[in-house]
Amino acid sequence: MYDIKELLNYIQPSELTYQEWINVGMALKTEGCTAADWDSWSRHDTRYKAGECFRKWGTFQRSGTDTVTGGTIYELAVRGGFVPPSKDPGHALDWDDSIVKDDLQVVDGTWLEEREVEEPADDAWNPVQDLITYLQTLFQSTENVGYVTDVYETEDRLAPKKGNWDRTAGELIEELRRYKDIGAVVGDPNPAAGAWIRFNPLDGNGVKNDNVTDFRFALVESDAMSLGRQEAIIRELELPVAALVFSGKKSIHAIVRVEAPDYSEYRKRVEYLYKVCEKNGLKVDTQNKNPSRLSRMPGVVRNGHKQFLMATNIGKRSWEEWHEWIEGVNDDLPDPEDLADVWDNLPPLADCLIDGVLRKGHKMLLAGPSKAGKSFLLIELVIAIAEGTSWLNFPCRQGRVLYVNMELDRASCLRRFKDVYQALGITPRALNNIDIWNLRGKTVPMDKLTPKLIRRAEKKNYVAVIIDPIYKVITGDENSAEEMAKFCNQFDKICTSLSVSMIYCHHHSKGAQGGKKAMDRASGSGVFARDPDAMLDFAPLEITDDLKKADEGKARIRGIAKALDEFLPGWQQDVSQDDMLSPSAMQEYAGSKLNFDQANTMAGYVAEALAKTRRKTAWRLEGIFREFPEIPPLNMWFDFPVHHLDESDVLKDIVVEGDKAQAKKKWAEKQKEAGKQTAQAYLEALEDLFKDDTSEIDYKELAEYLGKSPDTVKKDFCGAKRKGGSFDPRHSKAMQEAGYVWKRGRICKKDTMEDTTKSIVSPSP
Predict the structure, then answer these.
(1) Shortest CA distance to 364 belongs to which of 107, 538, 606, 163?
(2) Are strands 434-438 and 400-405 parallel, antiparallel or unpaired?
(3) Confidence of residue 96 (pLDDT cuts 50, 70, 90)
(4) Identical fold between 122-329 and 352-506
(5) Does CATH place domain 352-506 in 3.40.50.300?
């Protein structure tokens, strides 16, 4: 543990707010120190009042829910430059201890060199030029400037009046050059109070925020620390300062470029600016946030001290440049590493969570159309991981899973898990591995959800977090690459903070998806395809009428077989294998064996099987992986409430819905293949018919040999008839190349064509 009183050496009481000073006293009392310790340390502040520490000490409680501990002093010391020794073995943190990590900290207080702030000598100071330079730096010549030289007296100070706002910067500069006297131009200020000026241009109708015409600058002022430290921090932070003015008393006024397009953005930028200043030890007066605020006018005297222009255009050139620099200085990115250093000692790859698909700690996206059963597929995955079984034939490593339900009400979600377990036929042995976070009606944007999720999950040892679906938590425009990159970065935070795999679900874009690549079907920006380590796309298949008819035939057979099993055990001995595959044969057999009531029961079974079959939908799952080779598309049936892989390959040649081009291509390929098979059958038949030195055959002989009608052979061999009587060859190309020629209903070989032709044309002798 650290010596509390030693840590006080790193804390300047003059830099603390009143509440922070009180907190130090309360922490000292909690840690067993004395009021004298607090009083001795407080004497270094100009605000110190004798006896105040001892009076307040008695009001502090040593215990209770609001107790302030030594962790507060530790935090303030770190902010003031205390760096724990690198060899510190560490210590157990108390509940009230703070872990300090300032993402916006740039200034190292231990290395900060204070700058001497000296007023210019009378003979070296040109007050008129100070004000001219200030006006030229901050304003366009046609912009109205607000300034105040008149004051009114309050109980403890001289306060500025509203002043003037109806003169332009150009007019003021011209008169300053003409009269060479500030008082002659803006009026003589009260020597005890000095003068003020507004740093943003006005519309000439007033001095409120609504009268500001350009939200160009913000005021950074601090009077709770030494002047030299103020200037040192301002310069070290490289604030984009347009003008730096000494106030004539305890503070420096930095007129900082914020260059906001409107008042709303101005407020955001000023909050960010003040936050950075606070993080780096510059105690900013938060009363100065307004864009119409008064600042000290350079070129006048205040209570014997000069309000002078210290510098112009220091630090970064613009808000954007400074903001990028601040963010860049404080990134959490690792340093580049030399490949040669790790070449012989490469780090091990993360273990697989889903074999061949996803590693532990990586991200996976499941994309598909609405009402496609994506949630059921994800629930099947949750169960597979929890139980250590396979998902779509991919083995899964067993572990604990958090399923974040955004869409279903609690009762429906819980019942759905039970339905899927039962439909899969899995005994629920590891239900403790499944946590469900039901957030329907309670969702928040992902950037707000992430810390809440991490807080709830950090001690649960999850191997995977599944969010279903993400459209409920998307922040920003899903078609914006920049905004979606920021959105997806939240998944990285979850992965790295919890050491889990992140799995999330998204919907397809509108319209037919068949003509698109799998990675392009997800709605919104292409970031969704590029960001995850694994992307699985789930697309519907167009079931053909033939396939529907065949599937319904199988359903009829299942319904009939169910009735026969119930009423006629051993019926398989009476029915051939071929008849078992024929709905009509099975119906005929059952009709001859079952009575009226049994037949009615069978009809019910058949209707039930048909209804279930007609409910089934066909799907294709395609995968794009960063870590693994591509897998063949997986075809499956969604038989509510679970998915079954198509083991029979009947869906292999079915195309994705809406893919007309693909369907046409497949049809052409089928026709081409059929043509090849037809031509091959003809060639084999002709070779057999001509093997006995036969010179010619009638095409009807070929038809009889092939078991086809003469008209079919004529059509297959010759094709459609042209005008003029000749035939357009269709399958004959392969036969012609093999030496066979069609002539007036007869087929001959080319090498005997001349003799054959004569025999056909010339009459017999």
Answers:
(1) 538
(2) parallel
(3) very low
(4) no
(5) yes
Helix 583-593 × helix 596-615 angle, to 10°: 150
CATH of domain 122-329: 3.30.70.1790
pLDDT band at 2 (very low <50, low <70, confident <90, very high): low
Pairing assessment for the beta strands 534-540 and 617-625 based on DSSP bridges: antiparallel
Q: pLDDT by residue (tens digit) across 612-655? A: 888 888 999 999 899 999 889 999 999 889 999 998 888 888 88
- pLDDT the model gives residue 518: 46
Distance (Å, rounded) from C-alpha 469 to C-alpha 477?
Answer: 16
Mean pLDDT of 65-80: 79
Strands across the sheet with 363-368, in order? 434-438, 400-405, 462-468, 501-507, 363-368, 534-540, 617-625, 634-639, 642-645
pLDDT at site 361: 93
Cα 526 to Cα 480: distance, rounded to the nearest angstrom = 9
Q: Which two tokens stand for residue 670?
A: 């089928």
- Residue 656 confidence (pLDDT): 80
The CA distance from 554 to 459, in Å, is: 51
* Residue spans of alpha helices (H) in 527-634: 527-530, 545-567, 577-580, 583-593, 596-615
Bridging pattern class, strands 151-153 and 144-148: unpaired
Numbers of helices and strands, H then E, in the chain: 26, 28
Q: 219: pLDDT confidence band, cut at 50, 70 and 90?
A: very high
Instruction: Report how far residue 397's alpha carbon sits from residue 503's, in angstroms, rounded to the nearest whole number.
Output: 15
Q: How many CB atoms lie within 10 A of CB 28?
A: 25
**Are 748 and 690 in contact, with CB atoms under 8 Å apart?**
no
- Predicted model pTM: 0.50
pLDDT reading at 269 higher than 80: yes
